[in-house]
Structure formats: structure tokens, C-alpha cells
Amino acid sequence: MTWSHALKETARTGLAIERTRTEPLVAVRAAGGVALVVGVALWLGSTTLAVSGAFGAFSAGIATFQRSWRPRPWLALVAAGGLAVSTFLGYLAAAHTLSFVLMLGVWTLLTGMAWAVGPVSGLVSTQMVAVMLITVTLPTSTLGALGHALLIGLGGVVQAALIVIFPVRPWGVQRDALADALAAVADYARRLRQDPVAPFDPKPLMEARSAAALSPRQARRRPRQLRGYRLLAERIRPVLTSLADPVVGAPEEGPERDRVRELLAATGTVLDAVAHAIRHGRPVRVPVDAMSVLRVPEEGPRLNGAARRAALRLISLVADVVEASEEPVEEVSADGHMVRFLPRPGISGTVTAALRAIHREARWSSPVLRHAVRLCAVATSGYLLSRALPLGHAYWTPLTSTMVLRPDFAQTYSRGVARFLGTLAGVLVGGGLVALVHPGPYLSTALAVLCVMSMYLLLRTGFIVTSACVSAYVVFLLSIPGQAWQQTVQARVALTLLGGVLAMAAYAVFPAWETPRLRDRLADWLATNGAFATAVFDVYAHPADRRSRQVRDALLDARAARAAWERSEAQAHREPVRHRGLSRGAARDAQTALSTMGRVVMLVEAHLPEREAPPSPEAADFAETLRRSIPEAADAVRERRPPEWTAVHASLERWQDAAGDRPGVAPRGAGQLVEALDDLAEALSKGARPSGTPRDPRR
Hints:
Layout: H1 3-15, H2 24-43, H3 47-63, H4 73-93, H5 97-113, H6 119-135, H7 142-165, H8 172-194, H9 203-211, E1 213-214, H10 216-221, H11 229-244, H12 255-280, H13 288-293, H14 305-324, E2 331-332, E3 338-339, E4 342-343, H15 347-360, H16 367-388, H17 396-404, H18 409-437, H19 441-457, H20 463-479, H21 485-509, H22 518-541, H23 548-573, H24 584-605, H25 617-638, H26 646-659, H27 665-684
Parallel strand pairs: 1-4
Antiparallel strand pairs: 2-3
């Protein structure tokens, strides 16, 4: 993609308004916290403290709006506490330009590294720096700075208390995640009626698993409707694939295929009914016609072989789903102990994981470290440059750069365009009202609260809308202590444009492209898919040693690797750089091959043998061959060499010769898996170096 095309695409994305579900009650609650803090500060008679408290409550409120499976009042406390500390240190360092620049450089470097922990941590830390740059401009003394910091912390306490005292739709996000997972499986069942090899996006199941991670206290308070369904949805999905597959399941046409279509339609109907009941907290109402289909027919077309086993398994699992609506379904681990919830790490575990993530990204090739260095350089240079200009309000330039810069190209450039236009609209509207009405402190407070409530309400509609609301909010807040709005308009528009230009220019000069990492992501996906396949065929090799947890963990790793690849591929698609050995067509074909590989392994998993089944030496040989060949193939993908599957082909031929004319599900699945591996090698052969050619270290 050329630079002109990439810039047009990112500008279009930044101007787009997303239509998503809003949360009015949550927005009113968060805006009420801001109003409460500002009202108390004004009652005490300090307009500057009111502004500081408003920013603290604002940051604490926006932190809890980030994508989360629970309200997390502690996140409001952390956001406000971090802002209070950074504001107090900023006040102490603001007396001298050099000390403030050093403090700003250290703080932005840490802010950039916070993206290693996750997007929520990165966004919260970004808010801390942005608000600190505004609050330190309010005139005060050292003792007054301590008061500002305490009031900012109070804003976080108020927001956290409101979350606890006035919960809005408790367990609502968990209900939605679980309902979305069941609805996704239901939609998959209906699509399989028309396309027996239809793809399935595992994202809803991954999100449902994330939503199911609970603390012991949360597990005791969890509604009964949220228990058991997730694992049932996980188990139903491979059975649906096996039933619809024309190779392993029923034939493509005929009475058996008609019976399969009836079962798939009935399964979709039942799962939709259960998803609707979970989402709205109502009893499950399943149509009688659907349940009559999900019974073994006394007459009519019957299924045979693997298709019959899959149908019986599906009927049993759907019956479990219906029964789960009446009685709780407990999860039983492999060793027989009851596991009533998916444990979530505590505070110490979260801190340890965060430190490990930061340490893992502390390398020069990491896009997170490059983002941190880029953010530090842009913020400090922008502050010094804006101080040299006769515009005042020097903090607007580093504030804009901090809010615009992201670890990837697309978000940085789209946010740069959206922030400038949103800022321009917000400042003009807010400044115009201030100029015409000349509001006093209380009317300015009311207008600011209205803006912040609008921002909370429209937070997920696009960056241009939220930027306009935040800009007007800042204008009204700064009018509380009587700052001149004209100066704010002139300075902010010019310096916002300067900050956005610096941010986008910095990414162009010192980028962290995702395109060169595509082969690494593809190799990781191949390695995890291979581990999943190896775990499944190990069960066929030694059924008595069957460990379901091993297969489950390998499946989760494969899903995570697929999600990482899809994120990287989406980012690389919008970057103005050459593909460097993996063209868009090759990437698309490779993704199709690995998706097919995962689907085949899942199909074989649906027919795992019982513990009493005899061991299979051929399956053991195939699993061992995969265990040796997959890591070598992953290395070949990274080094732009075509992967070799000679040993895998030889092992498959031995297995098929031993199976004879009536191979089971596992040998047929192994054949489909090898075909997918061949498709992968063919896709990657475009632009690959001949085997044995050394890799160019400059790439």
C-alpha cells in the first residue's frame, strides 16, 4: 500500500462514527461522580481545586469505561491515584523547565511501556499524562499542589464508591459475553446447513472465557445462569463440524444430509433461545418442534458410522444445555475435583504478570519499546518547541501527541486526523458559548458535566466525537476560574495541529511496522496448531493416558495465536510498506491453510476414543513425526524457506496402509491435515528463498 492510499484509509477510519450499544445509566453515574466532586470543591470556595477534582473524577470515570468483564472499582482508584502522584510531581518540577522536561520524559517513557501490559493499561496511563499536563498549569503553591493531588485522588474514591453503591446491570457484561458465544455457535450451526465447511470465528468463545475468570468472592455471587454453558458451547462446536463434514460425517446429498440439516437447524434454535434467556435473565423457552427433532427418530432417515456417533453426541450435549437452565452444571476437572469457577489472578498475580510483560517487551525490536521511545521524544520536544512559540499554553502540544500516538500506524494516523477535527469542533462550540453567555462558575460546571456525560455516553462511537466532547469539557472547566476563552481557542487549535503533526511525523521517521512481523505470527500459529494436532493424535495413540486438559490448553494456545495473527494482518494491511516476502495473496492463502488445519484437528477431536480403546501405534508414529516436523517448519517460515513435509507424508502413508480400505476418523483427518500443510507450503513458496540459502540479517 502506498503512503497516499494509507493516509486516505486512516483518515476515513478516523472520521467514521461507529454505531454501538450505549450505556446511559453508566454514563449518568460517572458524570454524577464528576458533578459531586466539582460541587464539593466549589462549596469549599476554590475554583482551581474544582478544576483539579473534575479532572481526577473524569480520568477515574473514563478508566472504568475501558473494555472489561467487570466494573473494577479498583481501576478508578489506580487511575486517580496515579494522576494524583503525577500531578504533585509535575507541580514540584514545573518551577524549572529542565526538571519538568526530565520528569515529562520519564513519565511518557513509562506510559509507553504500559502498553506491554495491555490496551487498558496503556490508555489509563495515557490519560494520567494528558490530564497532568493541564492541571500543573493551575496556579498554586507546594502545599496547594498537595491539596490538588488529594482532591484528584478523592475523585477516584468517589467514582469507585459509586460503582459499588449503584451497580448498573450486575453481571451484564458476563451475560452478554456468554450469550454472544452461544449465539455464535447457533449461527455456525445454521451456516453449516448450506456450507458444510463454513469457517468459525473463535473470538466469541475466547471472550466468554475471559469473562468467566472470577475471584472466589465473585464465584460465590455468580448467577446460576452463568454456570456450565461456556463449556457446553465449546463441546458442541467440534461436534457440529464433525456432523456436517462431508468426508467424516454424512454424504453431501441424500436423506442422511437432510437429517443433518434438520439437526443443525434445531440446534441453532435451541442455542438462540438459551442465549436470549441468559442475556435478559429470563427462563429458557425452547420451541417444541426443535426439541422433537433432537431425538433419535423411530422411523425415517438414520445416520450411520461417524455421523451417527456425532449426532448422538450432539443430542446429548443439547439436552445438557436445556437441563442447565433448570439446574446448575458443575465443571469437573480431570482429577475428579470440583472446579466451580475459572480462577482469576489476584492483585499480586496481576502485578507479577504486568512486570513480566514489561520485561518481555524491553528489547529494541519490540514495537512497545519503540513506541515508548517515540512518545518520550515527541512529548519533550513538542513541549520545548511550543514554549518557544508566542502562543502560550505550551502543554497542548505534548498533550495532543500523547493522546494521538499509539504503538501501531493505523491508530496513530486515524486518531491524528480525528483529534484535530474533534478538537476544532469542541473548542469552537464551547468557546462560542462562553463568549456569548459569559457563564459563571456554576453554569460552567453544569455545561462541563453535560459535556462529560455526552462523552461517556458516546465513548465507543469514534474518536472524533469523543475528542469534540472532551475539548468542550476542558474549555468549560478552564472558564470556571475565569481563564480567557479566546486565548484557549487560538492556542489550542494551533498547538493541537502542531502536536498531531509531530506525532505522525515521528511515526514516519521512527516506525514500528507490523508487516515484517507477519511471518513470525504465521510461524507461531503453525507451531500452536501443530501442538494442538499432536495432543489430539497422542490421545489416539494412548487412550488410557488420555489427558483432556492437555488438549484443551493446546486448543487455547492455537486460538490465541490465530487472534494475534489476525490483529497483525489487519494492521499490516493498512501500512504503507512492502510485504518483504509475504504478499497479501500469500498471506491470505496461508491463513486459509492454517484455518483448515485447525478445523481438521477440531474435527478429529470430536471423535476422541474412550480410555478403554486399544492404542494405535500408527497414531503414535504420526504424532511423533508432527512433534519433530512442526518446529522445523515454523523456523523455515520465519526464515522465508519453504517448509518440508516429507516425513509427515511418509508417516501418513504407513498409517493409511495399516488402516486398509476402511480408515477411521483419525486416518482420514490426518490425510486432510497433510493436505492443509501442503497448501501452506504452496502459499509460502511464492517469494521464498531456496532451501539452505542463508537469511539476510538486515531483514
